[in-house]
Design a protein that fits this description.
Number of strands: 14
Family: Belongs to the NAD(P)-dependent epimerase/dehydratase family.
Number of helices: 10
Distance between the termini: 41 Å
Keywords: Carbohydrate metabolism, Isomerase, NAD
InterPro entries: Epimerase_deHydtase, NAD(P)-bd_dom_sf, UDP_G4E
EC number: 5.1.3.2
GO molecular function, one term: UDP-glucose 4-epimerase activity
Shape: globular
């Protein structure tokens, strides 16, 4: 089948395109390349365009006649969303509305949406189930929740079937080394730690070491990007074959690792000492964020293939060493 993949030149989108192709599907990447990379589009055509540009969307949909959509295109920097919420509502919400209207008008009935655990806000229980109240504490999380609400309304009014996948912390790189993480600016912990290991930055800053956790640092649920990608393939195939599904699923490993765990594992993988500085807590950082992904495991048969933190960091390190800035 043919699937339009918005944001398919980005980190998770490109890994999902590879997984789609491996399952016999054709991904059509639609990306404005603000954060995406043309080199990451290797398993189907790249069409440059913005989801807010309805005329361009219509052109690409008419050309390829996709049978479903996987929607990644979004801005995803939490801090930036607080400083410039208009940018996030315009792109993440307004752009998604443009896409959904195009789907409605062209009769495309299926969409898998890249959502986030940030829609839950401060957790009331750990691990977090899908039934947890959604109370985002920043405009990024709010924008994703608003799209989830739009999807519910479009399902009732227009019959567009959807699954929202709420990620925890995406990490790692393609085990074959063909694609990987390349954000600018980079805000994810593992690549920042590996930058410190390779001398690309002088140290890694731990934002608070006095949390109510075993070692005082924040605990997060890291999920390998290839496992995320496989979940999208399972989700879109479930929709197109009319399997009974929930409207939203968590994607996580169900176990948490602290910032110090990540640094210690990275030192073991890289065989390098990683300089550390302790900084002040960041506002809004919960001590623990761990997801309950049992529902997608039960309903769609999804199971993480790279659940071990060492595996995740090993794939990220192999990718990191291939980059032109690496000193290795």
């Amino acid at each position: 089948m043919r699937f339009l993949v918005t944001g398919g030149a980005g980190y998770i989108g490109s890994h999902t395109c590879k997984a789609l192709a491996a399952s016999g599907h054709t991904p059509i990447t639609f990306d404005n390349l603000v954060y995406g990379h043309p080199w990451a589009v290797r398993w189907g055509p790249l069409e440059k365009g913005d989801i807010a540009d309805r005329e361009r969307l219509d052109q690409v949909i008419n050309q390829y006649q996709p049978e479903g959509v996987i929607h990644f295109a979004a801005y995803a920097y939490v801090g930036e969303s607080v400083k410039d919420p208009a940018k996030y509502y315009r792109n993440n919400v307004g752009g998604s509305l443009s896409l959904l209207e195009a789907m409605r008008d062209h009769g495309i009935p299926y969409i898998v949406f890249s959502s986030t655990c940030a829609s839950y806000g401060i957790p009331e229980q750990i691990p977090i189930p899908e039934s947890h109240p959604q109370r985002p504490i920043n405009p990024y999380g709010q924008s994703k929740l608003m799209v989830e609400q739009m999807l519910r309304d479009f399902r009732l009014a227009y019959g567009i079937q959807s699954i929202s996948l709420r990620y925890f912390n995406a990490a790692g790189a393609d085990p074959d080394g063909e694609i990987g993480e390349a954000h600018d600016p980079e805000t994810h912990l593992i690549p920042l730690v590996l930058d410190a290991a390779s001398g690309q930055r002088p140290h890694i800053t731990i934002f608070g070491d006095d949390y109510d956790t075993p070692d005082g640092t924040c605990i997060r649920d890291y999920i390998h990007v290839s496992d995320l990608a496989q979940a999208h393939v399972l989700a879109v195939e479930a929709l197109t074959t009319h399997q009974p599904v929930q409207p939203a699923y968590n994607l996580g490993n169900g176990q948490g690792f602290s910032v110090k765990d990540v640094i210690a594992t990275a030192e073991a993988v890289t065989q390098k000492r990683i300089p550390v500085q302790i900084g002040a807590r960041r506002p809004g950082d919960p001590p623990r964020l761990v997801g309950d992904a049992s529902a997608i495991m039960q309903d769609l048969g999804w199971k993480p293939a790279y659940a071990d933190l060492t595996q995740i960091i090993e794939t990220a390190w192999r990718w990191h060493q291939q980059q032109p800035y690496s000193t290795q």
